[in-house]
Amino acid sequence: MINIFSTAAHLEQLSLDINEIKDYCYETRERLIGRNISNKGGWQSNNLSGVILPLNELFVQITENGNKFANQMGYKNKFKISEIWININPPGTSHNSPHIHPNSIISGTYYLTSHKDGKIRFKNPNPNFLYHVLPWGVSDLEKNTEYTNSNYWFEPRENQLLLFPSYVEHYVEPHQSEYDRISISFNLNNEVTEQKNSNRDLI
């Protein structure tokens, strides 16, 4: 077997102070109105900026793991956080609809809570997949593999960092746990992409 095209993700178990970061997330929700983009029923902050002491170590971990992931995929320029925001989804119907993260190369989420439901699901990014494998090949499949999966999911785990290519469409399911699903999402770019995005804004 030779993999001619592939999509990777990166998982890292961290050991940060969960309680301090949670407190910051709830304090931020109390202070700010937030925004609605892909979130339905939950709360999402605007992009965070400036020095944020409770998140300093998280910023370091995101940058280090982001660059390791980028290097494994073949990128050479250093990556840095370009956007970062908080998500708080209460139990019930709150969820995030399918979306991608445009104008960035790597995206990710840091989870402060674990949930057996409320998974994050990724759709197969091959645009021809739905027209070929699903209609004609499902009945012949003995099992789903990385070559035939229409989607892939991750179960949120406390203190876990997940990285993925920004172009992969994904969404978050509702959860029925007794507590909020709290996460911090972000985008990473390198100097080349930042320059292109800057030029695009001027057009």
In short:
This protein has 203 residues and is an alpha+beta fold.
Helix/strand layout:
Blueprint: E1 10-13, H1 18-31, E2 39-40, E3 43-44, H2 56-73, E4 79-89, E5 95-99, E6 106-111, E7 120-123, H3 129-137, E8 151-154, E9 160-165, E10 170-172, E11 181-190, H4 191-202
Antiparallel strand pairs: 1-9, 2-5, 3-4, 4-11, 5-10, 6-9, 6-11, 7-8, 7-10
Total beta strands = 11
Name the quaternary structure. Answer: single chain
Most strands sheet: 6 strands, antiparallel
Q: Order of strands across the widest beta sheet?
A: 1-9-6-11-4-3
Tell me the span between the first and last alpha carbons: 45 Å
> Compute the gyration radius: what is it?
18 Å
What sort of overall outline do the alpha carbons produce when their principal axes are compared? globular
Q: Structural class, judged by helices and strands?
A: alpha+beta
List segments where confidence is low: pLDDT < 50 over at least 5 consecutive residues: none
